[in-house]
Amino acid sequence: MAITISGQTYEALFEEMLEEMRYPDPEDEADVIIPFPAELGRGLTRLIELREGLELEIDYTEPYRDLTLSCEEYHEPDCIRVGFHLSGVHHCSHVTVCPGEYSLGGSGASPKEMFESFAEPLREITLRISIEQVRSFFGELPIALQPLIGSAEQLSFVQAYRTTPAMQTALQHILQCPYRGVMKQRYLETKIWELLLLSVEPLLTETLLLPSENLPKKLKPEQVDRIHAARQILLDRLENPPSLSELARLVGLNDCTLKQGFRACFGTSTFNYLH
Hints:
The chain is an alpha+beta fold and about 280 residues long. About 35% of the residues lie in helices and about 30% in strands. The protein has 9 helices and 14 strands. Strand 3 and strand 4 (about 55-65) form a beta hairpin. Helix 3 packs antiparallel against helix 4 (about 180-200). The radius of gyration is 21 Å and the shape is elongated. The protein starts with a strand and ends with a helix.
């Protein structure tokens, strides 16, 4: 028989477990392990705050019975959340996330709903990255990521996608991190940004497939094709990228058209995109 509790009760149970919190890394007070509430099951949650607005959560839990949370309407914080399921299933009215998949979510309104997990081992790695950190990383927010930023009146974006082999490799690097203290923090930060870039690739692809009428009218179709070719050259030559002038020459555009057109198509400069 399933257990049904409110979201507030669930949070209160976890707050009680803070008394049993422990520190796996003696060099890092922001790295903590919190036991799963004994009333619900067994396992633990590891939280690592790498810096303000950049958090990593690793869950190893197993409820005794199927668990349903009744969550009231609330506003998702201004951050991007990516949850990678290594095992176990989560289900709600908006999305179902299975093993080998990840959920990508943003800020905005979250309606009242039922959130379900099941009596089976759950292994999940979750990234929480504030919008401020995302803007700082990219220099500016790419157009492809705009759907992730919703107002209090807009429903928050949430979607599930398949986990790629590149993501699986980065996730294993996180689980097997060999460092402590500052070295651990910097190492995990690089993996978080790597995973974010990989996880938003579907949004970038959807942006590239927008109808031509949504592109700036000053760009001709053949120019758009050349700009897309420039993007592919950057991806193919990550180890030895061309200069802006060389890239423009390779695709048959002048520097100014490539610079302005690249920003129009992809929401960022060639330099930031390469970064």
